Amino acid sequence: MTLREIEERVAAIEPRPGVEYLGDLLLAYGLPRASVSRLMSGTYDKADTADERLWKDKVYFRYIEGPDEALYEAIDGARGDERVIKHRPRFLIVKNDGRLLARDQKDGQTRDIEVGELASNVTFFGAWAGFEKTQLENLNYADRKAAERMAKLYDEVIRHNSIETDDAIHDLNVFFSRLLFCFFAEDTGVFETGSFTNALGSYTRESGEDTHSFLDQLFEVLDTEPAERAGLPEHLGAFGYVNGNLFERRCPAPRFSAKARAVILECGTLDWSQINPDIFGSMIQAVVHPGQRAGLGMHYTSVENIMKVIRPLFLDELEASFEAADTVKKLDALLARIAAIQVFDPASGSGNFLVIAYKELRRLEHQILQRTTELEPHRAALFTDSRLRLDNFFGIEIDDFAHEIAILSLWLAKHQMNVAFEELFGAEIPLIPLREAGNVVCANATRIEWTEVCDPVGETYVLGNPPYAGSSMQSPEQKAEFVDYFGTARYPKNLDYVSLWFFKGAEFVNQGPDVAVAFVATNSISQGDHVGLMWPRVFASGGQISFAHQSFRWSNQARRNAGVTCVIVGLIARGQPVKNVLYLDGVRRVVHEISPYLTVGARELIVHSRRLPPPGLPPMVFGSKPTDGGFLNMLRQERDELLAAAPDAARFIRRYVGAAELLNGKERYCLWIEDHEADVAAGIPLIRRRLDQVAAARRRGSTTAQAMADRPYRFLQRAHKATSAIVVPEVTSERRDYVPLDFVGPETVISNKAFAIYDGDPWLFGLLHSRMHMTWVRAVGGRMKTDISYSSILVYNTFPVPEIPEDQRATLTHAAVAVLGAREQFSGQTLAELYDPDKMPPVLRSAHRNLDDAVDALFRSKPFESDAARLELLFEMYESATRDEPATAHA
Fold it and tell me: Rounded to whole angstroms, what are the CA distances from 372 to 319, 537, 734?
């Protein structure tokens, strides 16, 4: 059921006293009538009185004849009632004749409303119909100042040191990760408070000349075990043994100027105790990439977006297991399970995903231990350490400094969770000496075998936000990685770079029954021809879609948000049970199958190009292509100059329209010469000069062009008909709500930068100018960078069109003419201006809405509540129409 249907059914419930109202409410949400009858008759009911109903896991309901104050007492009483606690109903509801009070036991949200307002609050009980609000965590962003100070320090160090070789760059990266650790350690109790900064300020000269030697000595001490520290200066003996490989390698500190020393002391005066490793790593990574600093933190993945990956991948199921664990034995089993989980990010960057996954598993561990102490208080004394180990967290990162910061971020996260552990259970877990570290390696994830980094024994979750890089944005090295992966240079060249992670992820999930993958990607992987390029290989490798977040706008709380539209896709091995969960705008929905377009639809449904249009529709063709070196077409000024010198040339000049001319109102013209008039046209000297230039250009061109050099007056590809036509631009901005179309007359030649439907009727213009058609265009059309690339064989010829009776064609015609009439009121504006979503005139938008309603009514009588619903129906129609279609129908 859709939310709109639920709203209508809830609004239609007759107000009546007693518990019967609950039955009506449950039926309105689509719960099985037989189950509701059993509840109301008492079979399912666990309540004791006639004015109550208690359905295990579902709902507790009580009707009260009394004032509103009695409702609050009743719901408080229900929360403490042992019967209710035992059966764990999701919702508590108490109601009198005019008011309803409800509580969601899962998230603690409440509703206190008049009964008549319930139809406006139907999402509150959405779980009954399979709609579930996802839990989104917000980020407390407070780390910019520290990153900016570190950037100042980096620039000053670079200014006074020769950092050119790979080894020197690596040493500098290690040096900065050590500094970060020391700043954090002195502000969080790992070292004595302020000890690092105070020692640096006390025992080095203001000139900075001896700062490097002091740091070299200190870093060596931090890697020296207490038993081997005899004879150390007193001011260094106070620093603990760190271990963990952070200070193991002897790489000399860079030399410092007086300014660099002052900046490092300035950094030490900041409070590093509240640093968030989940964003801080990405911001510090930008320190060593100065070109990224204008948007410090812009490219990190926000906690909110990371949780969109983690929750459906594993956290929701673990939390549900925790909620169901009502004995110490079950809690111990769950704790052992999460302690064995492996988390792997093969594009780890600065470790954001690993850090959040670690923190969430530690929080769940804390909850398990708290509930255990509630059931068996004597067990509290046994909780002295965490069972989760950083050794179970794996990553691959190609950038050396980011790889170092990822390891450091995991240590910082561990210390923060250790502090939380101490606050809950009174047991201190020292961070140093470091006994474990995340297994993050510096390597190219597309070239290394992932099993070499993470052996997927047991429950293993692969996650992350790999680099996107569309085909036109890929470096030569990235293109070489495709060749290396495919083993040949003959691979689909239009694949996005991120597809390599999906290919390798699909192979990785087959390493074991408890392996699952989920990646963030741009929505291009689920649109247009990229679906046919990427997903068949994913399926052939043994992967299948388990869950997905449909398109959402990327956002984080950095100073400038990244403007990308993303999706999230979860994969598991073929044959393993799938979750079949779709998320859109925070709403969770269980569906029967998820298509590669991330819609409800057949699991491996892919729209293929077709040679012919749908039944009843005229063909759409490419416009006419000149291949002329630019000499058969001309700007208005060139046309005017030609006509001034040779008025007889007018009969050979036509208006020439492609996408740019259609959308931006540009005037362009062309020479259009029929075979029988070639000699006459060539007799005009200025035309003859142009034809000679066309012939010369063609002789330098392809074999096909060379073959037409002796007929320079003729377009290489001729599609023009002397009739009116609908023009569809080949490329249009993704921002537009509609692809701008128009009619042209028989004297206009449509160029190869647009498509033409000759003799197209107004009703067809209306059909193609609708939101329904635009939804199909966005889903299956190609992309040119971020713009929409229209295709006759992939979009128009595949568009599922129902049979359209004459009376509905008349309705469409009327609505289409109204759109054209609305445009006429703004004849001074171009189509690009009229269809700018921020500037579209209200009268034109209203005309389009009426047209949308008319087109929607062709497909079904009930209104569509969203484009996702439109697309679901279109894919269903496409699948039905092509199920038994012969392969020869496809281009």
Answer: 15, 47, 54
H or E element, residue 73: helix 68-80
Confidence (pLDDT) at 297: 47
Sorted by sequence, the CB contacts under 8 Å of residue 564 that are 6+ apart come out as 468, 522, 553, 554
**Mean pLDDT within 566-595:** 91
In three-state secondary structure terms, 639 is: helix
User: Residue with structure tokens 């812009």?
Assistant: 298
Q: How far apart are CA 27 and CA 23, in angstroms?
A: 6
Which residues pair with residue 839 across a beta bridge?
none
DSSP state of 393: E
Q: Give the residue with greater pLDDT, 76 vs 243.
A: 76
**What secondary structure, in 3-state letters, does 862-876 show?**
CCCCCHHHHHHHHHH
Does residue 467 have a cis bond before it (omega within 30 degrees)? no
Which three-class secondary structure state does DSSP give residue 84?
helix
Structure token digits, residue 148 = 């900016």
Q: Are 122 and 130 in contact (CB under 8 A)?
A: no
3-state secondary structure 38-102: HHHHCCCCCCCCCCEEEECCCEEEEECCCCHHHHHHHHHHHHHCHHHHHHCCCEEEEECCCEEEE
Residue with tokens 């699991």: 603
| DSSP for residue 623 | -
* Alpha-carbon distances, residue 507 vs 501, 504, 517, 578 (angstroms): 10, 5, 10, 17
Q: What is the pLDDT of residue 482?
A: 96
In which element (H, E) is residue 628 found?
none
**Mean pLDDT taken over the chain:** 89
Confidence of residue 622 (pLDDT cuts 50, 70, 90): very high
Query: The tokens 């320090």 sit on which residue?
Result: 153
Q: Which helix (H) or strand (E) holds 23?
A: helix 20-28
CA distance 821 to 816: 9
111 close to 101: Cβ distance less than 8 angstroms: yes
Question: How far, in Å, CA of 819 to CA of 816, rounded?
Answer: 5
The SS3 assignment for 344 reads strand
How far is the C-alpha of 215 from the C-alpha of 81, rounded, in Å?
63
Give pLDDT, residue 279. 64
Residue 888: partners with Cβ closer than 8 Å, 6 or more residues away: none
Which residues, 6 or more positions from 458, have their beta carbon under 8 angstroms from its beta carbon?
Answer: 340, 341, 342, 512, 514
- Cα R_g (the chain), whole angstroms: 34
Round to the nearest angstrom and report the end-to-end CA distance of the chain: 37
pLDDT higher than threshold 90 for residue 181? no
Closest CA to 530 of 488, 470, 489, 572: 470
Tokens at residue 220, please?
């060596």
pLDDT of residue 888: 54
Q: For the residues of 783-807, what is the DSSP string, one character each?
A: EETTEEE--IIIIITT-------HH
What is the number of other CB atoms lying within 10 angstroms of the CB of residue 486? 15
Q: Say whether pLDDT at 672 is over 90.
A: yes
Is the predicted pLDDT of residue 670 greater than 50, yes or no? yes
How does pLDDT run across 36-74, given as a tens digit for each residue? 999 999 889 999 899 999 999 999 999 999 888 899 899
Question: Measured at the alpha carbon of residue 163, what is the angle toward residues 158 and 167, in degrees to the nearest 5?
Answer: 140
**Which regions of 623-678 does DSSP assign to beta strands (E)?**
633-635, 653-657, 668-671
The region that residue 55 occupies, defined by phi over 0 for left and psi between -120 and 50 for alpha, beta otherwise, is beta
Q: What is each CA distance from 815 to 53, 65, 756, in whole angstroms?
A: 52, 54, 21
Residue 491 neighbours by CB under 8 Å, 6+ apart: 482, 483, 485
Contact 740, 662 (CB under 8 A): yes
To 5 degrees, how large is the angle CA 553–CA 731–CA 722?
150
pLDDT 10s digits, 323-340: 999 999 999 999 999 999
pTM over 0.85, yes/no = no
- The alpha carbon of residue 5 and the mean position of all alpha carbons in its chain are separated, in whole angstroms, by 29
User: Which is more confident, 627 or 141?
Assistant: 627
Q: Which residues make Cβ contacts (< 8 Å) with residue 41, sequence separation at least 6?
A: none
- Residue 802, pLDDT above cutoff 90: yes
